[in-house]
């Protein structure tokens, strides 16, 4: 299959609606409770806690419980750290620096624990988004809401076995950056730190708001298992996000009330999970408005500047991530990529791989 064909490929669904419904429910319950209490200003902490549900999606129940519990703890630490930075009134440069450290350390810990999704994307998002809020909730309150939401996600993850959710078909191979030697783990973490540091700095220099979005885009391609997948992930990130900005512009062109935004967030979470394992760029058509609407719930800003920032920061970050994954490869990775080139060419020409 050619590179262009792979970009638009949409593999058959593997009963994705079941985990998608579970994950959407993990987000829906805490958000609807906060909506009923008229405290949607706290929705961002519940949503980040609910990201626990995304982990260990296709794993057996016992492994899912272990890995979701580990992810919940890491997310909780990130949420508390972000709330602390905001409450201290930390300068943007400080917040971005701390977020870059979290990107590297989080990637290392995630690889060591074999967490899936791989990488530190959600940890970066939690620290960067909450730390950038002008007035975040007190850390104890942010932590309490996030912990309750994460606990619900773990419970629903256990309940998934009752509706037939489990590993469907052959188990996917473990990405190459899991089970690495200590030196390789640190190199992996270093890529996350370097890419997010440069992206955050360039995002800050761009004068746009939400510089942590550049850091998210920089981290996205690094989590993929090999160079080809990383390059494709980076391009998907840019194209899908730009399309998602258009979807967001359409949604925000309507006069949305708070309850409308909450409903859209729940629906968008479900749609994102339907496509995230099948085509990353399509999933980003829903992930992008999901992230932006969450941001608007926590701290509403002018729509045009929000959309411009998301587009510009994503391109900046994705380019930084692509540069890092291409130029900062180990010798073994370069050799593996070199060996893969003839196989890719054969596949593109419809030939059977040999050797």
Automatic annotation (TrEMBL):
The chain crosses the membrane at residues 20-36, 70-88, 118-134, 140-164, 185-205, 235-252, 258-276, 283-301, 307-328. Its main location: membrane. InterPro entries: Memb_transporter_dom. The keyword Membrane applies. Keywords: Membrane, Transmembrane, Transmembrane helix. It is found in: Membrane. The keyword Transmembrane applies. Residues 199-324 form the Integral membrane bound transporter domain. Pfam families: FUSC_2. It is a multi-pass membrane protein. This is FUSC family protein. It comes from Kocuria gwangalliensis.
């Amino acid at each position: 299959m050619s590179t262009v064909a792979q970009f638009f490929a949409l593999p058959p669904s593997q009963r994705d609606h079941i985990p998608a419904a579970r994950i959407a429910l993990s987000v829906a319950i805490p958000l609807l409770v906060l909506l009923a209490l008229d405290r949607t200003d706290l929705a961002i902490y519940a949503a980040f806690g609910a990201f626990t549900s995304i982990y260990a999606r296709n794993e057996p129940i016992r492994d899912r419980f272990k890995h979701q519990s580990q992810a919940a703890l890491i997310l909780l630490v990130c949420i508390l750290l972000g709330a602390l930075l905001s409450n201290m009134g930390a300068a943007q440069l400080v917040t971005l620096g701390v977020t870059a450290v979290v990107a590297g350390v989080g990637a290392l810990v995630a690889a060591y624990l074999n967490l899936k999704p791989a990488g530190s994307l959600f940890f970066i998002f939690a620290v960067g988004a909450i730390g950038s809020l002008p007035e975040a909730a007190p850390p104890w309150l942010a932590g309490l809401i996030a912990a309750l939401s994460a606990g619900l996600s773990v419970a629903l993850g256990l309940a998934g076995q009752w509706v037939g959710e489990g590993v469907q078909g052959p188990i996917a191979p473990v990405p190459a950056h899991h089970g690495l030697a200590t030196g390789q783990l640190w190199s992996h973490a270093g890529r996350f730190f370097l890419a997010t540091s440069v992206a955050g700095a360039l995002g800050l220099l761009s004068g746009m708001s939400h510089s942590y979005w550049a850091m998210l885009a920089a981290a996205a391609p690094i989590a993929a298992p090999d160079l080809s997948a990383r390059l494709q992930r980076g391009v998907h990130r840019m194209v899908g996000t730009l399309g998602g900005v258009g979807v967001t512009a359409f949604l925000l062109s309507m006069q949305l009330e708070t309850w409308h935004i909450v409903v859209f967030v729940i629906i968008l979470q479900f749609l994102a999970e339907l496509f995230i394992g099948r085509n990353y760029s399509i999933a980003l058509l829903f992930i992008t408005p999901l992230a932006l609407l969450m941001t608007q719930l926590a701290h509403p800003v002018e729509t045009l500047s929000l959309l411009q920032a998301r587009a510009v920061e994503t391109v900046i970050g994705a380019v930084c991530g692509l540069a890092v994954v291409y130029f900062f490869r180990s010798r073994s990775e370069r050799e593996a990529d070199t060996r893969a080139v003839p196989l890719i060419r054969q596949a593109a020409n419809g030939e059977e791989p040999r050797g």
